[in-house]
């Protein structure tokens, strides 16, 4: 059992013995200053008001009970107005190593999400062009979040919502057809419609169509448009799938928006809202009473001309998600969709789902830099406009890690030159090299005839940096649970940077293979083996490889 879980259990028992219950705002955390122990708890402070007791005397009672509650507690001090500062024994810390060894690739996992079906929908870019670097950040966040949730015991399914219906798809078909006519000399370049897609990929698709479908330009207008639309969607989606595959981002389901209309799901959703009294007609349009569900105003579902809004399809789509049995639905959206959250939460509430069943993770913009200078990404001519360009330039590992070096709703500067560097300034190199260093060290130990199965004497691991590594290893399961609970996969990246930093410091200052004179080499190798396992597990959670050599 890790330290925080043990302390939580011990404190819970102490409270029960005193006839008290755990308070809602009880917190166990790592103190900012190590001199205050391994863990700090505010339980006496938050209990004081509810019980009518002074916090410090209550803390003294809890401290006394804790000191005699477990052999793993070395000391308990009461600080300030009533904080409990707890230090664990060296033996308890050292026991973390055999735990990591026994759990292996499962170290850090939990069953906290057991019984909860979760759907994570991410990227879902319109199939009107290739994925750009902003989509890449959304892919890294969404795919990593799904991995973290699975590791925490949730039953997770990932999904891509294909926006293959509506005006944008017709515009795509019109764009390809217009370029095909231009290539064939039937139109001048200046005749290209102003509101059509202008990327170079449109010309490429048009040229391909003219070669494969020689009768395209002799077809009736609507038939030609339908063919261009279908051809464009298929080929762009194929490119998107390939980019995501190269990026190590996996979608279990690819859901078509067109299927909602074809199966009558949109009309069914609108009928359900009407029957429940959540919609009304005004000025020839159908409105949803979103204001009744804390949105800032009511929203249109069907316009006065009879056409449906995107919101109507989105309601039907989310109703379908819950019909499929998901307990919790998480959408990963670009930050420009922030204003859409309230209306979707209103829709989910109107569908009769609890407030915590739907959440949105926002992903902010990415500024692409080269040696600190911003690169324009507004046109296809931009050298690194697309996600595929970035993957080719720096590789999926570097790209994914860089995308997760900040919280997803914070803007991110992505420096291509930094991501390419093979030195300690590059965050992904910094972490991967820590793992590779450990693997190389263990290989050298074997070459020198050392037995890696030698259990050694873990009691020899008493150096401050060794204890810091043990404390950090112990925290990994809690970090995973926090990342899952907060829907924040960047917490894994932060943890990996911290653990890698300790490893690099230890490696530079304390010999391992020459320590056999003192008999501590086997214990140190086991410690580093545990650190390597934790690094590997953490990197896997964010979809980044853990190389054995670099």
Write structural notes for this entry.
With 550 residues, this protein is α/β, with parallel strands linked by helices. Among the domains are: 3-88, Arginyl tRNA synthetase N-terminal domain (Gyrase A, domain 2, 2-Layer Sandwich), CATH 3.30.1360; 96-112 and 424-541, Isoleucyl-tRNA Synthetase, Domain 1 (Orthogonal Bundle); 167-234, no CATH class. It is 49% helix and 13% strand. The protein has 20 helices and 15 strands. It has helices at 3-17, 43-51, 55-67, 90-94, 96-103, 133-151, 167-183, 200-212, 221-246, 257-262, 265-275, 310-323, 341-350, 387-394, 396-403, 416-420, 427-447, 464-486, 490-509, 521-541, and strands at residues 28-29, 39-41, 73-79, 83-88, 117-121, 155-162, 253-256, 279-282, 285-288, 299-302, 328-334, 358-363, 366-370, 373-374, 412-415. The chain has a 5-stranded parallel beta sheet, with helices on both faces. A hairpin with a 2-residue loop joins strand 8 (279-282) and strand 9 (285-288). It is flat, with a radius of gyration of 29 Å. The protein starts with a helix and ends in a 9-residue tail after the last helix. The relative contact order is 0.11. The model is unreliable at 378-383 (pLDDT under 50).
Give the CATH class of one domain: Mainly Alpha
The average pLDDT is 94
The fold-level CATH name of one domain is Isoleucyl-tRNA Synthetase, Domain 1
Q: Which quaternary structure do these chains form?
A: single chain
Structural class: alpha/beta
Radius of gyration: 29 Å
Question: Kindly, what is the distance between the CA atoms of the first and last residues, rounded to a whole number of angstroms?
Answer: 34 Å
User: Which descriptor suits the 3D outline?
Assistant: flat
Annotated CATH architecture of one domain: Orthogonal Bundle
If strands are numbered along the chain, what order do they take across the biggest sheet? 7-6-5-11-12
The number of helical runs is 20
Percent range for helical residues? 40-55%
Q: Main sheet?
A: 5 strands, parallel
Q: Beta-strand level of the residues, as a percent range?
A: 5-15%
